[in-house]
Structures are given as structure tokens and as C-alpha cells.
Design brief:
six-stranded mixed sheet; globular; ADP-ribosylation factor-like protein 1; Rossmann fold
Amino acid sequence: MMSGDQRSATSKKYQGGFFSSIFSSLFGTREMRILILGLDGAGKTTILYRLQVGEVVTTIPTIGFNVETVTYKNLKFQVWDLGGQTSIRPYWRCYYSNTDAVIYVVDSCDRDRIGISKSELVAMLEEEELKKAILVVFANKQDMEQAMTPTEVANSLGLPALKDRRWQIFKTSATKGTGLDEAMEWLVESLKSRQ
């Protein structure tokens, strides 16, 4: 997590099931709309299914979208994973309405396209329908030796210059599951404190 101080994400296996259902029955469940966005090949779909089923599933490039419901810490998320290919990105804005948070996934090894990733992020954050959305950036593929650090990713995306938006960046590996739990904890707390 980075925002002033940076620390390495520790991995815990995503825990749902029994405790989540008890928590939900005691305190109720509120559904939140989350978009998972980022360029093609960043790991968006792997993250979605890692959060939903707790393991890596075989994925193919998303043409269009995947939508799943994920329950975490008494919050029910309707998670929209939108394809990141060049031809699909213009359609992202069709899904912005009523979005509570955006998980923006960056391939930390893809130095050649970090500028494109920044351009897409900047354009997205300028959209009126996302003005109040919380931003969580996953600096993904951190298990790879050539990965940029979360600080490098944050600076390349221009995150420190963001004003009037709650954001955080996390060091993640979708395939290993590292950093996802910490990121979801932060997101849940941020959404709860906003209400």
C-alpha cells in the first residue's frame, strides 16, 4: 500500500463463506457497484475470479464484460470486469453510471504501455459520473522480476497529483493472490467511511 508510507502487502487467502454469511445475517448487506478497468493483459479477469472463488481460473481475453457478485466484509459488490482492448475502451463510459469504486489494474511489467494506461486513467477520472468514485490501483504482476515498484507505477500514472479523490495503490499478484486482501480491506473501509 502506498500513500505517504509504503509497505509490502502480505497475503491472506480470501476468506468468505461461513463468517461472511454470519456477518451478513447480523448486519445486512448493501450492494456496491465496482468496475475493474485497465489495459488488456493486466490481470483484471484473474483478479475478479480470484476474489470471487478464491483461486486462479483459466481466462481468455475479455471481449465485452464479465459481471459477478462478490461478498466481502458485509458488503456485496457487483463487480464489472470490462475488456481492455483498444477497440473496447471507448465503451467503458457506458458502465460508469452509479459506480462506487474503480479498481484500475496495471501490468507492472508493461513499461511500453504505461503511458497509454495513464491516458486511459486520466480520461476516465475526468468523467462526471465517476467524480465521487473511489480509486484503487492494483500494481499487478509484482511476482515478476522486471515489475515496476508501486511507487514507479503511481508516479507514471500521475497519482500523487490527484486532487479531490480518495485513492490508494497496492502491490498485487493476481496469480499468487498477494495484496488482494489488503486492497479489499482498504476499499471496504473507504466505502463504509464514505456513507
